[in-house]
Amino acid sequence: MKRYVLGIDQSTQGTKALLFDDKGGLLERADLPHRQIINGQGWVSHDPEEIYANTLQVIRNVVEKAGISPSEIAAMGISNQRETSVAFDRSGHPIADAIVWQCSRAEKICRRVQEAGCSEAIRTATGLQLSPYFPASKFAWFLENVPEAAELSKAGNLLFGTMDTYLIYRLTKGREFRTDYSNASRTQLFNIFTLEWDPEICRMFGIPEASLPKVTDSDALFGMTDLEGYLSDPIPICGVLGDSHAALFGQGCHEKGMVKATYGTGSSIMMNIGSDAILSSHGVVTSLAWRTQGKTQYVLEGNINYTGAVITWLKDDLKLISSAAETEELAKAANPKDHSYLVPAFTGLGAPYWDSEAEGILCGMTRTTGRNEIVRDALQCIVYQITDVLRAMEEDAGFSIEELRTDGGPTRNVWLMQFQSDMIGGRVGVSEVEELSGMGAAYMAGISAGLYDRERIFEGRKRNTYRNKMPAEEAGRFYEGWKKAVAKVLKTP
Description:
By secondary structure, the chain is an alpha+beta fold. The protein has two domains: 4-242, Nucleotidyltransferase, domain 5, CATH 3.30.420; 252-493, ATPase, nucleotide binding domain (Nucleotidyltransferase, domain 5), CATH 3.30.420.40. The chain has 16 helices and 24 strands. The strands form seven sheets. A seven-stranded mixed β-sheet has the order 18-19-17-16-22-23-24, with helices on both faces. Strands 3-2-1-6-15-14 form a six-stranded mixed β-sheet, with helices on both faces. It has a three-stranded antiparallel β-sheet with strand order 4-5-8. β11 and β12 form a beta hairpin. α9 (243-250) packs across α14 (436-448), α10 packs antiparallel against α12 (371-397) and α12 crosses α13. The radius of gyration is 22 Å and the shape is globular. The relative contact order is 0.12.
């Protein structure tokens, strides 16, 4: 009997396989890291062949750990690091290492497009600010810098995609060249209103539309796979989402106005805005949440560079702590009369400021500012940054956020989550499941395959709930101090 669903979470650091039973419970997981290839110029790359091999291996590992027969797997879903870009030929062979989302080697291409006066046209069609962060300029970089790319393109044999596309192509032995709507909307080549690749924007970047994958509903059939002979009967790949979108789905944020924040190295904050796209005028971007059963839902999204990474900075660089777990008690012990602030603009500030030249600052220090206070400031700056994005979203959407659903390692910090609730003046629900991206993709696949009921599968998902305790006036003073601190570091008006 086929009663298990496989979720693949292909992330920046590694690849996970998650196995879920017919009630949506997580049975087992397995993961493998892959190399972070960084050259002397600071370019960040991944080897797609290594990632594909790891994907096959973690599937074998998770099945073995769970002690089930491979023949019992009903379907699989894929979540992926979204903007990492792959160029490959029709045999599935990559023509170069993948360009990771963090890599800004295509900055000159973006500058050229900007100087041509195309920035606003791109934003109003794609919902995204022109940036080398997105695949459009990365694809162009392949075309302009990899010797065989132009010849392959001329012959119609050059294919571009994000990591989901590459994995689908390889898993289906080249039969299916597809991506889903959530990943397509993050390429900066996809018109989020027409729901098609935008011919004019493709021309701006020099990308042939024939090199781009077919865009498929997130819960549709992406192809059948036998996992390179591991399965005697092929299974459907029928749930594909970008990792942040998959986490939103896994959080159960399926209705307009529902919001999630992932606390990782950085943070992705997403608000479901329903079936109508809203172009932000407050510093966040617009993407597709997903398209299922022919119906589209959109999101507002804000990305922050340094949230959990601030804790790493305290530990590895300042040596103020030996583990993240220490921060809670130290923050509790901080002098409440100390009003120092940390603005972690180590690589500029992301949403909603978008100031790449901003520099970090620790300000408002007095003789009361010591180890406890700096650690508290580090936790508070995570909360303030997320609050900035949430308030921008409220302005764009025209309604207030009632609950923030959260996930990620830092959410285990009770002090941090309580302060987050105090700053937003509403509920914070912390997921008890950490693997929300892989779970979201697996649930999408299980629903598509008919194994799960969409309404019932999310019932009973447990969350720890925090409610604001701080008086609104006091919370306002805290936040006003933060805004003054940010103003000190902004370089662009």
